[in-house]
Amino acid sequence: MNGPEKLISEAGVLRTKVGAAFPGSHAVYRGHDLHRDLQQLGWVDLYAFGATGRKLTAAQSEMIQALWVSTSYPDSRLWNNRVAALAANARSSTNLAMIAGVAVSEATVYGGNAALRSMRFLQQAVKRVAAGEPLEAIVWAETATQKIYGYGRPINSIDERLPVIMALAEKLGMDRGAHLSLAFDVERILLTRYPNLKMNFTALHAALASDIGLSVREYQMLRVPVFLGGMVPCVAEAAEKDEGTLFPTPCAAVAYQGPAPRAWPHQ
Question: How far apart are CA 86 and CA 78, in angstroms?
């Protein structure tokens, strides 16, 4: 059924499997009473349950939390933190400042979009290798048409988060998953031609999420809070500064290379 009939069938009613609120009585969260059945869940567990409909194991929950913590850099120079901090310094509300920072966290180069592309590549590559394709051929075919996201990093090619997360993965028994192993194999192949294309946190994050069994869509939802822990202190500090004093740029510092000023004829 399509067209107006489809819209009419959905008018005035919400058909849902995820839950509903019954004010004065109770709230249902994916088939469970939110206040009676789910109060023992930690925030990460509830969030993941909401996104996926599945409950994480203790190890998976600890790993997701560690990934969130490891990305919480309180540096207002970072692109999404800067947006949130500038909004707070301009006296925007905290909500709007944080939302603006989260919105630009979908960036392709550094943010969520890069991680999603990395995850798609890793998941497809695992299937192709299992079907008999050589990984090296897959890697070079991919680089011939586009970059492989999750490798290489500006400023310093060494990602300080990898040893921390890999130590935890080993402790939790999550260090030998198919996607994680393949991610390191991809790094070894890339380094034979490009010495600076070391694995970064994006590929590690995407590989672990894939080994946990997350789909790309589920992973996208789980990534939403990943920068919030570092964004909050930037917003708090920026709001304490005098309005307009965060990263002021004098006109003399702008290197303009556009068209020269034009003289407009008098009418």
Answer: 12
Asked whether the beta carbons of 118 and 187 are under 8 A apart, the reply is: no
Q: What is the mean pLDDT of residues 57-86?
A: 96
The encoded tokens of residue 178 equal 């198919």
Whole-number Å distance between alpha carbons of 14 and 261: 58
pLDDT band at 225 (very low <50, low <70, confident <90, very high): very high
Structural domain contains residue 106: no
Q: What percent of the chain has pLDDT over 90?
A: 82
What is the C-alpha to C-alpha distance for residues 129 and 133, in angstroms, rounded to an integer? 5
Cβ atoms of 151 and 199 within 8 Å: the answer is yes
Q: How far is CA 157 from CA 33, 208, 266, in A?
A: 47, 20, 57
Q: What angle do CA 236, 156, 104 make, to 5 degrees?
A: 40
CATH number at residue 188: 1.10.230.10
For residue 1, what pLDDT is reported?
Answer: 67
Question: Do 43 and 121 share a structural domain?
Answer: no
Contact between residue 112 and residue 105 where contact means Cβ atoms under 8 Å apart? yes
Spatial contact of 196 and 35, defined as CB atoms under 8 Å apart: no
SS3 72: coil
pLDDT tens figures, 164-190 = 999 999 999 999 999 999 999 999 999
